[in-house]
Design goal:
Strand content: 25-35%
CATH class of the largest domain: Alpha Beta
CATH topology of the largest domain: Pseudouridine synthase
Radius of gyration: 22 Å
Structural class: alpha+beta
CATH superfamily of the largest domain: Pseudouridine synthase
Order of helices and strands: EHHEEEEHEHEEEEEEEHEEEEH
Low-confidence stretches: none
Distance between the termini: 62 Å
Mean pLDDT: 88
Number of helices: 6
Number of domains: 3
């Protein structure tokens, strides 16, 4: 159904008792449950003319009426930001995001983001799902580099989002962490939620948290640090950074979760100290199913030069 169209659904006996948002998502083309829930909360969908909550259980005979408004007018402009594109076709763009680049516009970052650059490169991704986040199905923190897939149309957006929800997408990272890890591998299973005091931070001690799992394997050991391969089983905000800090091996260069460690200079020789330019976290590999051809795709991003330089400097410590 086209975004500007209105629609009417008559609830039949087989749908009685279903959640309102789920019913709308199942009947309207290219409408996810979360998008349906947003439309319901915004008053764009009503049952028998009345406002309801997304979790309202519908009853046989009720009439649901709604309309999908045009995508919101985006506050941000296309900008000619250089983007390292690893792959592009009619449905997706796979990029190697440089560190320092914010993925999508938000208060304080309405320009200079990856989305601004993508809108310049590919103007037709602007109206996906009526959201202010065109095509973005997952994110990388500003200072994390590496592979990111972006949807170019609504169908691809929903199918990729579904793969992330079902956790069929394989995400592998490379991280330099403080300290010498004793074991060769391990799994961190600690739930993650908003920090109870600092709302910009995430925490393993949150009152309202969701399960999170990170598997790691040592790649190389140095005197003051360890290089590890990470397999991300879930994709919570700041997951790797929070989990590594929780086991007392925070990511090097992490100003938020590194704590006291980030104020310690690492001595390489008598007259030389190592200064880490940013958080040493890189999304090196992403494997997923193409939303249209259903073929298995795998993309790798080379280790960025600033991370390679830090690894080389650490090697010189022995």
């Amino acid at each position: 159904m086209h975004h500007r169209n209105s629609f009417a659904i008559r609830v039949d006996a087989t749908d009685s008792g279903k959640r309102l948002d789920l019913l709308v998502a199942s009947r309207i083309v290219d409408c996810s449950r979360s998008f349906a829930a947003t439309l319901i909360r915004d008053g764009n969908i009503r049952v028998q003319g009345e406002l309801k909550k997304p979790g309202y259980r519908v009853r046989a005979g009720e009439e649901i009426r709604g309309h999908i408004p045009s995508p919101k007018h985006v506050l941000f402009k296309p900008e000619p930001i250089p983007i390292d594109i690893l792959h592009e076709d009619d449905d997706i763009i796979v990029v190697n995001k440089q560190s320092g680049l914010v993925v999508h516009p938000a208060p304080g970052h309405y320009s200079g983001t990856l989305v601004n650059g993508l809108l310049y490169h590919c103007p037709n991704i602007e109206g996906i799902g009526g959201e202010l986040r065109p095509g973005i199905v997952h994110r990388l923190d500003k200072d994390t580099s590496g592979v990111l897939v972006v949807a170019k149309n609504t169908g691809a957006h929903h199918r990729l989002s579904d793969q992330f929800k079902r956790r069929t997408i394989k995400k592998k990272y490379l991280a330099l962490v403080h300290g010498k890890m004793k074991a060769d591998s391990g799994t961190i299973s600690l739930p993650i939620g908003r920090h109870p005091v600092d709302r910009k931070k995430m925490s393993t001690r949150s009152k309202k948290s969701r399960n999170a799992e990170t598997t790691w394997k040592v790649k190389e050991r140095f005197i003051p640090a360890t290089l590890i391969d990470i397999d991300l089983k879930t994709g919570r905000t700041h997951q790797i950074r929070v989990h590594c800090a929780a086991i007392n091996h925070p990511v090097m260069g992490d100003p938020v979760y590194g704590g006291r460690r980030e104020r310690i200079k690492i001595e390489i020789s008598n007259d030389h100290h190592l200064s880490v330019p940013r958080q040493m976290l890189h999304a090196r590999r992403l494997e997923f199913t193409h939303p249209s051809t259903h073929t298995n795709l795998c993309f790798e991003a080379p280790i960025p030069s600033d991370m390679l330089d830090t690894i080389t400097a650490l090697r010189s410590t022995g």
